[in-house]
Amino acid sequence: MIVTTLHACLLLVGSFVLLVGIRVPVAFALGLATIPVVVLDLRLTPFLIMDRMFQSYNSFILLAVPFFLLAANLMNAGKTTDRLIAFARVLTGWLPGGLGQVNVAVSMLFAGISGSSTADAAGCGKILIPAMVKEGYDKRFAVAITACSSVMGVIIPPSILMIVWGGVMSVSVGALFLAGAIPGLMIAAALMATVYVYAKIYDYPTVGRPTFGTFWVAFKGAALALLTPVLVIGGIVGGIVTPTESAIIAAFYSFILGFFVYRTITARELVHVLYDTGRFASISLFAIGTASVFGWMLAFYNVPRLLIEVMSGLQFGTFGTSLVIAGLFLLFGLFIDAIPAIIILGTVLFPVASAAGIHPVVFAIIGIVSLAFGLVTPPYGLCLLISAAIGNLNVVQVLRDVVIILVPMLLILLLIILFPQIALWLPGLLMPGSFQ
Fold it and tell me: Is the dihedral angle over the CA atoms 171, 177, 178, 180 positive or is it negative?
């Protein structure tokens, strides 16, 4: 028999929701959800599905994912995070809410190196959450600000999500990196303003103004680590290296710093770093494969065309369509990881966004920022789960503060939708060729 679009949607989405509901891991649920459709539709065969899965892996750009994960793990294992925290302390520790401001600043610095929010939450959280509690900060606030600030890891370039997005939807990764810079800095400013308000209400302490000597010492300690984003982003924007090559450079540079310069990584620790990187990369890449098959099936049954017809009939316009797209990404981010969400929802909504006149780069930034917020919203909320585990708190205990901190961050997302030039200005200025 031939399965219709409606039946295919019901079978795919219904099977996926059922499998996730009985706690089957998302990556496996995406693959298993395709089986009923393959069994019922004579046009599909298991070999065709396996071929689509292989094709999703046959991408040079996706090799950047494990190497950026390796760079982040090497930075954490090599105690580079400590040096960034020391530098962030002299930069922002004197502001009201001292260590809270440091928390935001170090997440911003670490984001420019790692491209991973979970590595940020784990690496910075282990140090800053206990330090904030020791200095009198409410533990719930310490956990909430650590989780929320870590989302900048996938917004401020380099970003693993931007690499996946660029590879899946054929958008310039360099343009996406540049487009994420200003929104990332705006989110950092919103977070610092929130910390300021908290500090004034609860009378949180400051670290004290640094002297030039302490600033210089902290800067020298972090200077080599801070060169990483210059090498990565500068190489891509300058057209010197590809995103994959830049990820390899970042990983190799992180290894040189930790093993030879700082000498904080031993051979035994290196084995653990490689093992953890391989484990996390395999999870991400397997999810890419199953999500690609799921997304291909939606396209096979003309779901994107159906969505275009529905949205055109509703006449939302560019702004209304952008809001709907952001809402869908925020909803998906509640339940599944960002990478499968990009492959499934991003590919389905891409023609919808194009039909509504939304620039591909703006569409990408709306999607990535929305999915980044999903890292701190239950039930998925991986960064929130990591931070809460470090603080020995239940996620429910932290939700109130997370919601308060998320409100100004959501306003930044709304500003990006209202004023797309926020995302387009920098790539249009520095990469006009790729930007077009």
Answer: positive
Torsion 314-320-325-326 (CA) sign: negative
Distance, CA of 93 to CA of 135 (rounded, Å): 13
Task: Decide if pLDDT at 1 tops 70.
Answer: no
Is-contact 63 285, C-beta < 8 A?
A: no
Check residue 392 and give left, alpha or beta (phi > 0: left; psi -120 to 50: alpha): left
pLDDT of residue 142: 94
What does each C-alpha distance from 241 to 185, 245, 304 come to in angstroms? Answer: 25, 6, 34
Residues 386, 129 contacting (CB under 8 angstroms): no
Mean pLDDT of 328-348: 87
- Radius of gyration for the alpha carbons in the chain, expressed in angstroms and rounded: 22
Confidence (pLDDT) at 240: 86
How far is 416 from 322, CA to CA, in rounded Å?
A: 10
> Do 100 and 361 form a contact (C-beta atoms < 8 A)?
no
Residues in the chain: 436
What 8-state DSSP symbol labels residue 111? Answer: H
Which DSSP letter does residue 26 get?
Answer: H
| Segment holding 52, helix H or strand E | helix 46-57
Angle at 287 between CA 286 and CA 291, to 5 degrees: 120
Q: Determine the pLDDT at residue 10.
A: 84
